[in-house]
Each structure stands twice: as C-alpha cells, then as structure tokens.
Amino acid sequence: GTRTWRNLLKSDSSVDLVHFTILRPPEKQDGVPVDELSLIAFPTRQLFLEKIDDFDLIIFDRYKRRGILPPAYLQNIVRYVGDGGAILVAAGPEYASANSLFRSPLQPILPGAPTAQVIENGFLPALTEFGQRHPVTAQLPETGDWGRWMRQIELLPLEGDVILKGVQGLPLLTLNRFKAGRVALLASDHAWLWDRNFEGGGPQQELLRRLAHWLMSEPELEEEALLAEQLEEGILITRRSLNAVVDPVEVVAPSGISQKLSLEERAPGQFQGLYKNTQTGLFKMSDGALTRAFAIGSATPKEFENPLSTAGLVLPIIKENSGGVFWLQEGLPRVRAVNTGRAAAGRGWLGITPRQAYENVQLSQFSLIPGWLAAFLVSLIGVLAWLHEGRKRA
What we know:
Immunoglobulin-like, 6-stranded mixed sheet, alpha+beta, 7 helices, about 20% helix, 4-stranded antiparallel sheet, Rossmann fold
C-alpha cells in the first residue's frame, strides 16, 4: 500500500512528495551507540508543528497511535485542516483497534467511526448514487470490469458524502469538508490489488490521483463548476453539479446582448448546452449561483498573420535616431560610447550616448569614527611606536 501511494504521487509532476517511513518505534531499544545509528529521529516537531502549513495534504497510511505524535501535534493537525489543509486516512486493521486514529484528537474531523470489525471477505467496490455524480469517481470505467478487494474496515458513517461502497453497502470511501479544509477516509488498505491487476484490476491510479487532487482543492475537481470551451460550432457551456436539476445559464456577449441557455444532462452530474456565437471578446455567464468570465479570440489573430521577423516597421524610427539593426544570428555587436549627435551604430558596433541622466535624491555624509576617537587612536599609536623604538635603542 505504501509503495502505491509513493509511486503514484512521485509520478505526478504537480505534486512535491515528502515521504517518511517509521522503521523503528521509539519503544524499541537496541545496543547500537547513537553515533553509529544510520537512522534519524523522526522530525515530528518540524513536520507537524513548525512547517505543517507548508503542506497541502497529509496521508496516514495504516497509521496507528504509537507514541510518536503527541496529542498536541494531532490537535495541531485539526487546526491545520480547519485552516484549509487536507488529510487522507487509508485505514487498515489498525483503524479498528484500540490504537485507532479515531481514538485521538483527530476524531472531530474523521467522517467514519470504526465498529472494531474487520471484514476479510472479497467484495467489489461500487459507486454510490452520489459517487456517480461526484467528480472524483464520475465516469470511471464500469464496475463490471473491476477486480475485488479482500479487506474492509466496517464504519459507522458520521458525516460527509460516501462515494464508494463495499460489503453490504458499507462506506468504503467517504469525503468530508471541515471548515476550510477537506478530509477523505478510505476504509480499506487493498487498493493496491487494482494496481497488481488482481482479477482484472481497476482504475486505481486514476481514482487515487483524482482523490489527492480533490483534497488539494484542484479547481478541475470542484463539485460545483461552470465551464466554457470554444468549439467550431460554438461555445460549449458545461455546468457540473451534484444536484439533479440546474438553472439556465445567462450568457452576456461583449456587445452587451444577453441570452439564457437551457442545459441538458449529458452524463451524471454534467449539464451541457451549446451557445452559438460569432463575436470575439470577453463573455460573462451566470446561473445565479456561479458566475464566470471567459474570452474568445479570433482564430487568426493579427500577430500571427505575418510571423516573420522584419525590421521594416521600425526602420523609420531607427534612422531618425541614427541607430541600427542587428540580428542575433550574426553575433552580438560591440558596445562603445559615442558623443551626442554622432552615429549610434555601425558595422559590428552599437553606440551608447552618455546622457548623465541621473538625479541625486539624497546625499548623506558621516564620519566612520568620531573625531575624538580618531585623535586618541593616533596618539596611542604614536606612544606605542615611541616605546617600541626606545626598547630597541636600549
């Protein structure tokens, strides 16, 4: 499981992964001298107190309370999530034990309570009705092609939205918002079976990628979104929503003319409509709840009509100022100073006219050391020199 998360997030160019594995718990002792240990102390204070706000997502993979994170640090994670952070808990049997994260200061933000039951039977993960509309799981490959998982932690749903279900419809993947942050609870540690193509596998990489990006508030995975895309036949307006019905979208063209467009549900949670358009410029669209602006430009902008480099357009200005044109392919010209009114360019050289165009805004003068201190140092040096010479003569 851990390797699955590490490989997935390291392969994502938009994610900067910091991965830590606890190889030896603090209660385990050995006789190796401290200066010969190849392991470092787990940087709990630095990660979970001083720099926790630098992270967008914290993943607990089969983690249990083992004395490494004091309650104060876990309480700081609750504060971090409330301020806009995110955590993902991939629950294994540890979540159903007495050392579960649910029995810690993290309990207020976790959307599911363990019943202490670990189900060791094979089951097919399935989308809930809500999950068919949620962008994290919408339009994943059909469930008939998915392989089974072999373990699930029984949970009692407390809050949030269940988008995947497992054995007997029990919550498998639950998403929740806590103040400004987000929380996900995956009630199984067998997602890696899909990656190993067990019984045909499943969309493990796409599911976990979407899940991680939703937790990090990726705009493309927002549940409520209003999007526009320019096509040859017009502008395709898409309204993504968890509701079964959405309001018409009012589109205001650059000319100020507005038009209401009714949207049809083309896929679960996606409503689309085509807006016929012949104008270019800035458009505005709104359905009352969301307002967006988008720009439509010409298919052949003027700057692309003649993309060849030429000096013809600026030659009159250059000649008026006695300048010159230089091409990089011919090499950089030498730079020299020239007097005002003289030619500012020639064969292989470029002239710069010193114009003394500067202004003193403020000038401050002060002594490096006070006068009395300077006199004292000079006298002291003189006395020391006199004493030194006197000793040499003696």
